[in-house]
Amino acid sequence: MDRRSHKSLEEVHGTIETAGKKSPWKRLLAFLGPAYLVSVGYMDPGNWATDIAGGSQFGYKLIWVLLMSNIMALLLQSLCARLGVVRGRDLAQASREAYNPFVNFVLYILAEIAIVACDLAEVIGMAIGLNLLFGLPMVWGVTITALDTFLLLFLLNKGMRKMEVFIIGLIFIIGGSFVVEMFFAKPDMGELMAGFIPSLPDSTALYIAIGIIGATVMPHNLYLHSSLVQSRKIERTKKGIKQALKFNFIDSAIALNLAFFVNAAILILAAAVFHKNGMFEVAEIQDAHALLEPLLGSSLAPTFFAIALIAAGQSSTLTGTLAGQIVMEGHLNLRIQPWVRRLITRMLAIVPALFTVIYFGESGTGKLLVLSQVVLSLQLGFAIIPLIHFVSSKKLMNGFEIKWPLRIASWFITIIIVGLNGKLVYDEITGWLTTAENPIYIWTLVIPAAIGAAVLLIYITFKTTVKDIKSEKRKMVPHILDAKVDELAQPLSYKKIAIPVDFSTSDEKSISAALQLGGKDAEYTLIHIVETPGAMIYGDEIDDYETESDEAFLNKYKEKLDAKGFKVSVELGFGSPKKIIPKIVNAADFDLLVLGGHGHSGLKDLLFGTTVDSVRHRVNIPVFIV
């Protein structure tokens, strides 16, 4: 385990410049983006299931729940942005610093459950969309969703801005599709406006309302937003932080209102088409798709519906992956390869999805979608309560803590969410005890888990209220306490430097850097690895044209450097550079290894991997990366 404390999403941290923009509009545009990545979680396939169920059963009567959820989301996301901007910590990192290791680990497990539940909705939604648009069987659709791992990594390699543009493009596809749907549906505006008056007709409405809240205010989005705002490089002054908070709030307001439009459009569509025609039990996305054409009289309606569903599933799964990385790195200070992290999360979601499709058929996917959103809602309190404590602390926020009106509003929202969840859990357990033939499993498993969750909620609620969190950071790794600055300031002297080359344009940079570090007193060894299939099999016994050509080219490098007065030798290796370079370096007494690029980037990085990452973990000398 890498026990160093990392910056949140280190590969994109502070990569977008916001200073130096004279126009207020340009300054605002520099900040726009993070909330759009967050907002896609508010319009994912899980939302579709709860919105369709609510609209078909209760018409427009639950649209007030969507509006309330959106207001909650805007407040909570603004608190996350404040935490990230002011403290430079995401919610998971802040929790690791605040709580003891056991509580921190339990919070991590709960966050992971929320992410898997969210990813489960994306897997099913994507599979349904592919089935509706192309007729692909659900089992195959669920299976191939693992491939979007590569899309995420490709976008991250291209930079945060390009990923944001891609996500915003998907959002406009979703929004545009529902503009068309609304044109076909022609909702009753009088009944629609009446739906903003709060009411809960029965216990089923409560279950769906909680599902809507869980589908809208998602736990993983709180972790995600507190990290993504740190991709902006801001001036760490009072004025700079105030400006960042203002622009991030505008970003959140625009993005989340777009998400509210999409969610409301889905519920309105279900109410105007299904509830109006007496179809109160339409809860499956597939059924909704099948009924749109005969009820609306247009073949375009179901097509736009399926396109929007695929766009929603794909955009949400990308941001869910980032949230998983943030949670693992923040809570555990554990950093693994992003594609490994992605596949772990995706496999945990694919297994229950496949089980449902195979054993319960496609009709079970809608119920699984709603259940996944209820699970998300149950996790909310464990993320919201620490968040409110962190942003309310004067010691931690250095003058940027939230004031009493906002604190009261935040705790009011928390009480509503936790209270509704508590009632749901009580009703469900009571129902199970009444109907179960053998309730021993409920008494031994379910009830202790519910009591444990309640105890944890009470603990994190009062732990930081009674005694404020310490402002000093907990030491995550041992530190050198008596470092002698004079000794550390002495210039480094490298006598034997190894320089791998691959005959690409990057060689010039790595050789130049090495020569500047060592000067004419050092000895240099140019290393080139022959990667042909023959070299992989026969090693140094291979004798082919490419080996001869590579050796001749390597000697040309040597001759040119010799002519300039540098002491240079060459070394030819055979096989995989990731394995052979460390083998050559570790077998000799080099002082320094200078690594440059490898001549490919982007998609090829995903397919072949980077030599730099593999080599630097396998050598036992300092590595200078150009």
Automatic annotation (TrEMBL):
**Which residue intervals define the domain UspA in the entry?**
494-626
The UniProt keyword set, sorted, is: Cell membrane, Ion transport, Membrane, Symport, Transmembrane, Transmembrane helix, Transport
Q: Name one Pfam family in it.
A: Usp
Q: Which GO terms describe its biological process?
A: iron ion transmembrane transport
Does Magnesium count among this protein's keywords? no
Q: What Gene Ontology molecular function terms does this protein carry?
A: cadmium ion transmembrane transporter activity; manganese ion transmembrane transporter activity; metal ion binding; symporter activity
Query: Where does this protein reside within or beyond the cell?
Result: Cell membrane; Membrane
Record's GO cellular component terms: plasma membrane
**Transmembrane residue ranges:** 28-43, 63-85, 105-128, 134-156, 165-185, 205-224, 245-274, 300-323, 343-361, 373-392, 404-420, 440-462
Annotated CDD domains:
USP-like
What family name appears in the similarity comment?
Answer: Belongs to the NRAMP family.
PANTHER family attached to this UniProt entry = MANGANESE TRANSPORTER SMF1, SOLUTE CARRIER PROTEIN FAMILY 11 MEMBER
**HAMAP family named among the record's database cross-references:** NRAMP
According to its UniProt entry, the function of this protein is described as: H(+)-stimulated, divalent metal cation uptake system.
What is the name of the protein in this document? Divalent metal cation transporter MntH
State the taxonomy lineage: Bacteria, Pseudomonadati, Bacteroidota, Flavobacteriia, Flavobacteriales
